[in-house]
Amino acid sequence: MSQTTASTTSMPNPYATGLLGKRTPWYVLIGVIVVVAIGFWLIGQADGGDVNIVGVVLVSAIIYMITIYVLSLLIEGSRKAKDRLVTALVGSAFVVALLPLISLLFTVITKGAARFDIEFFTYSMRNIVGEGGGIVHAVVGTLLMTLTAAIISVPIGLLAAIYLVEYGRGPLARSITFFVDVMTGIPSIVAGLFAYSVFAIFFGPGIKLGIAGAIALSVLMIPIVVRSCEDMLKLVPNELREASYALGVPKWLTVMKVVLPTSIAGIMTGVTLAIARVIGETAPLLVAAGFTNNLNYNLFEGRMQSLPVLVYNQYVSQGSVPQHYIDRAWAGALTLILIVMLLNLIARLIAKYFAPKTGR
């Protein structure tokens, strides 16, 4: 019995022969990337330039597809080789789609790190002509205007979404949906011109205020909040509403106690993403809020700087030493990207921890 068992266990598995190992494609990919990166680095050293990260990724993807296909064809046969080629092609297509993002992040991080220091986040641009200065006035202005826009937009957008899902019927609901769709596609400069014209009627032409910039951002933010909240409210099962009505709970209380708590995670995620969407707008703030080098905490008095407008001004209005202005522009862009990334992470955490628990 033991001899039979030993002979059975020692027999080779016919399905394990002629196959690549599970980690072999990863080893091939890493090896290709290393070789291509070294080649691009040598070319860059010869030409006196930097390593082209986009070229490294693109060339590595092409060489990997050829290598893994040939290797699989020699060992596994044509059928498995075609399967690996298609798999590599799909993965390479995904990587190529990410190339603009990879290139953007690589460029902004490498060029923005030059001024990413304590002074940059504790000083403003007041009385700064050349080297030095910071963006504290722009960060404060961005946070104040974005927070004010959220305070204006979230109640309006949420109430509009509740009306469309729970109460809206007939021509009025269709009209609101139509105008929300139209507002979603309007250019951002139109929102800035609208806010500027409203304040120009009361305070005269040439008025630039932080509150005007906040209203311009709220015009862009409201349709995003309406759409995201509407989608989240529609996901609430009707059975929950019907169970509440069966217990004699009125409709408004059902919305407050059943519908909103069930969809709160999606609503908060949509609001956070809407804030991340408008925080990088430049044109409406340039028109409505203007720009200044001073630190301003008052939304209702004087011009107010924002991060996107500061990046724009630093890049187009370079002084006697352009490199100082370019460094500040790249560092400001890096700060803005980090803020947007932080908001997206917050949205994901909200969706994870505030989602209703379905387990028993």
Automatic annotation (TrEMBL):
Domain of life assignment: Bacteria
In what way does this protein cross or attach to the membrane?
A: Multi-pass membrane protein
Indicate the transmembrane segments per the record: 26-46, 52-74, 86-114, 134-164, 176-203, 209-226, 258-279, 329-351
- Give residue ranges for domain ABC transmembrane type-1: 139-347
Write out the GO MF terms: phosphate transmembrane transporter activity
The Gene Ontology biological process terms listed for this entry are: phosphate ion transmembrane transport
Instruction: Using the UniProt record, give the first listed, main subcellular location.
Output: membrane
Q: Does the keyword Phosphoprotein apply?
A: no
Q: Name one Pfam family in it.
A: BPD_transp_1
Q: What does this protein do?
A: Part of the binding-protein-dependent transport system for phosphate; probably responsible for the translocation of the substrate across the membrane.
UniProt name for this protein: Phosphate transport system permease protein PstA
- The record lists the organism as Homoserinimonas hongtaonis
Q: Which gene encodes it?
A: pstA
